[in-house]
Specification:
Length: 386
C-alpha cells in the first residue's frame, strides 16, 4: 500500500502543471534554436550571426527566469509604482528621436550600444504586474465605477496608447486585450466592460482604416492572391512555404523561403519556415505544445491563493498564448499581417527575456501552490490544536 502511495505521489509530481509548462517551454526553445539557425543562415554575411546573438540572449533569459522562479512574489508588490513609472518612462523615451531607434518607420527600440531593447516587450509585463497589484489590493472597490473600472482602464490606456504611437498596432492591441481580460477575471461589472470593449474595437478599427499603410495591409489580406506582388507579398510567400512543405517538409536547411524570398523569415514569419522545412506534422506539434502550455496554466490557476497572484499568472499566460495565436494566425493567412514574434522560437532577445520572466513566475507559483490553500489552512489549524 505504501509503495502504491509513493508511486501515486511521484506520478502526481511529474504531471504537475508547472512541470508540464516547463517541459513545453524547454521543448519550444530548443526547437526554436534549431529552426532559427536554418532560417537565418542566409540573412547575413555570417551564417552564425543571428544564432550567436540569440544564444547570448537565451543565457540572459534563463537567468531572468531563474530569478523570477525564486523571488518572493508578494514582496514584489512594493515595487508596483516604480515598475509603472519605469515602464511608462521607457515607452516615452523610445519615442524621442536620438534615443529611440527607428526601423522601417517604427520607433520601438533603445540602443544601449552593446544591444537594443524593445521597450514594449517589457512594458507588457509592467502592465500585467500593475493591474495584478492594483486589483489584488483593491478587491472591495472592483464593483465600483471609478476605483474598479476607470482607474485600471487608465493604466491600460497609458500602456497601449504609448505603444500605439511607436507605432506598434499589434502590441497595443495585445495590451488592450490582455488588460480588459484581466478586468473581466477580476470581476469588473459587465455593464462597464462591454461598452469599453466595443469602444476600444471601434477606435482601433478607425485608427487602422485612417492609416494608409495599415488600411493597405487589410485590403491586401482580403485578396491575397491578387496582391501577391505588392501588399500581400510576404503573406503569399508564407502560404507558398506551407504548400511546398506538405505533410513531412523538404528537410531542415533545405527550404527556399529564407533565401531572401520571405522577408523577416527568422523573426515574425519563422512559423512559415517550420511549415516548409518540417511539414504539417511538426507545425501541428508546435501548436499542440502551446495548447498544452495554456491548458496546464489554466489548470494551475485553480490553486491560486489570492487575487494578486491569480491575475499575475493569468496575465502572463495570456501574453504568451495570445501572442502565439496571433503570430500563427498571421503567418497562415487567418489574420491580416502584423509583426508579433512567435514566443520562444522567433529571433529577438527582448521578447525571449520577457517570455522567460513569465515562465519564471509560472514555475515560482507552481512551487508555492503545491497544495490548495484550504488544505494548508486545515493543516495549520491541526498543528495549533495539537
Amino acid at each position: 500500500m505504501a509503495t502504491r502511495s509513493a508511486e501515486g505521489l511521484s506520478f502526481a509530481r511529474i504531471f504537475q502543471p508547472g512541470v508540464i509548462i516547463l517541459v513545453c517551454v524547454v521543448s519550444l526553445t530548443v526547437f526554436g534554436v534549431s529552426v532559427l539557425f536554418s532560417a537565418s543562415a542566409h540573412s547575413a554575411s555570417d551564417p552564425y550571426h543571428y544564432i550567436q546573438r540569440q544564444l547570448i540572449w537565451l543565457v540572459v533569459a534563463v537567468a531572468v527566469g531563474i530569478f523570477f522562479s525564486l523571488v518572493n512574489l508578494d514582496g514584489l508588490k512594493r515595487f508596483a509604482w516604480p515598475a509603472l513609472g519605469v515602464s511608462l518612462a521607457g515607452l516615452v523615451l523610445v519615442l524621442i528621436p536620438g534615443i529611440g531607434v527607428e526601423v522601417n518607420g517604427a520607433r520601438r527600440w533603445i540602443d544601449l550600444g552593446f544591444m537594443r531593447l524593445q521597450v514594449s516587450e517589457f512594458a507588457k509585463l509592467g502592465l500585467v504586474f500593475t493591474l495584478a497589484c492594483y486589483l489584488g489590493t483593491h478587491q472591495r472597490a472592483i464593483p465600483r465605477f471609478w476605483a474598479g473600472f476607470v482607474f485600471p482602464c487608465l493604466y491600460i490606456g497609458l500602456y497601449a496608447g504609448l505603444i500605439f504611437l511607436e507605432p506598434d498596432y499589434g502590441a497595443a492591441a495585445l495590451c488592450g486585450a490582455v488588460g480588459l481580460t484581466l478586468l473581466f477575471l477580476a470581476g469588473v461589472r459587465m455593464s462597464y466592460l462591454i461598452p469599453a470593449c466595443i469602444g476600444a474595437l471601434a477606435a482601433f478599427a478607425f485608427a487602422v482604416f485612417t492609416n494608409p499603410l495599415r488600411r493597405g495591409r487589410v485590403m491586401s489580406f482580403m485578396d491575397i492572391e491578387g496582391n501577391r506582388g505588392e501588399g500581400a507579398y510576404q503573406l503569399w510567400q508564407a502560404i507558398l512555404a506551407f504548400g511546398a512543405g506538405g505533410t513531412e517538409g523538404v528537410g531542415l536547411g533545405n527550404g527556399r523561403q529564407q533565401m531572401a524570398f520571405l522577408p523577416e523569415a527568422h523573426t515574425d514569419f519563422i512559423f512559415a519556415v517550420i511549415g516548409e522545412e518540417l511539414g504539417f506534422f511538426v507545425t501541428s506539434g508546435v501548436l499542440l505544445l502551446f495548447m498544452v502550455l495554456f491548458l496546464a496554466g489554466i489548470f494551475h490557476l485553480r490553486r491560486a491563493p489570492n487575487m494578486y497572484q491569480y491575475l499575475l499568472v493569468a496575465g502572463g499566460l495570456l501574453l504568451i498564448s495570445v501572442q502565439a495565436l496571433i503570430n500563427m494566425g498571421v503567418v497562415t493567412g487567418c489574420l491580416p499581417t502584423k509583426g508579433l514574434s512567435l514566443p520562444f522560437i522567433s529571433y529577438g532577445g527582448s521578447n525571449l527575456v520577457a517570455m522567460f520572466a513569465i515562465v519564471g513566475v509560472l514555475v515560482n507559483t507552481s512551487l508555492a501552490w503545491s497544495k490548495p490553500p484550504m488544505r494548508n489552512t486545515r493543516r495549520k489549524l491541526k498543528e495549533i490544536a495539537a
